[in-house]
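Troubleshooting log. The previous run stalled partway through. Resubmitting the same two chains, unchanged.
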Amino acid sequence: MENANLISLFVRSIFVDNMIFAFFLGMCSYLAVSKDVKTGLGLGAAVTFVLLVTLPVNYLLQTQVLAADGGFNTAVLGGVDLSFLSFILFIAVIAGIVQLVEMIVEKFSPSLYASLGIFLPLIAVNCAIMGASLFMQQRIGLDATDPKFIGSVTDAVVYALGSGIGWLLAIVALAAVREKMQYSNVPPALRGLGITFIVVGLMAMSFMCFSGLNI
Amino acid sequence: MAKLKDKDVFVGPLSLNNPVTVQVLGICSALAVTAQLVPALVMGLSVTIITAIANVVISLLRNTIPNRIRIIVQLVVVASLVTIVSEVLKAFAYDVAMTLSVYIGLIITNCILMGRLEAFAMQNSPWQSFLDGVANGLGYAKILVIVAFFRELLGSGKLFGFQIIPDSFYELGYSNNGLMLMPPMALIIVACIIWYERAHNKDLQEK
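Second attempt completed without errors. Output:
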């Protein structure tokens, strides 16, 4: 794919197809961990990191092993459509890689591990990771001229980076708002969860203005 | 731990301990599939079935699963069930399956499932786990249906795909609120449900 399209894919996955504001993926941890900016930043970085590792692996798995015309599939299995196995395989890859990443980070960078440590295991069940894999699976089937098309490992990496940064942006923005909100007088019934939902709704509305974005 | 009564296990998640509005689980899919009632209902039922069966399976296995790898075991059980449901939907309700697209697959990472498996099925008997699964699934479906009701009625003037608001209203200048079909309004409607619930139950309010 040309460089211009890569940039377009990257920018679109941050702003237009934002994981939180357009698809509500990873909402559970998003709402639970967005109480202050620092932890939000940590979780956002961890999500981006895991996305960057899992998406290329799942891309290869999907195109080579699961699809009937994949290289490995035709050579070993004789062209059987295995795409119904994608849920199990994707989640196994994600859970496995999260475990692996946790061990590697612990060994080589104890300081990073200390700051990310508690979030890493949580990420295995973060919908944003699984969601990105499933969206990628859909996008592989698209027409090559479509701006959302993902056709190579590079595309998958760029999509992963864009989605991760979009998620990071969203959680840091919400955390910043919530930090300030502690000083405001919210009606008792809305305090905590209720007002957070409204804030996310308003932020999602403002992100809607990116929807016509095209580079 | 005191033995829980079957009735409490079943009624709790439907009222005071609702998985979406009180425990804040499974928000992701709760919001994305609610632009119309039919997909919302199908999603709610799928989650109910999967939670109930997964709860029973994990509850039966609870004494044999090594503690260290329990998350992986839970994920595999859930992923297999989701695959079955997804194949069944594709075979018998293709249109709805296409509308739900990736969100069916995302039931695997739905926090309600992992939350209930971890918090309930690992400690309780299969029968109670089954009740707990059904009740949590229905509590989740309840919120989905409420949100979808308002979004479909105000956003496209329909319920279950049938027009509800008469043509004469449109002639008088009434028009559908297109914003209701956009993602942000789902969040705001859930916020309103939470607001309503907490205004009536002072116990649920946060400090």
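Takeaways: Chain A has a mean pLDDT of 81. Chain A touches chain B through 47 residues (CB under 8 Å).
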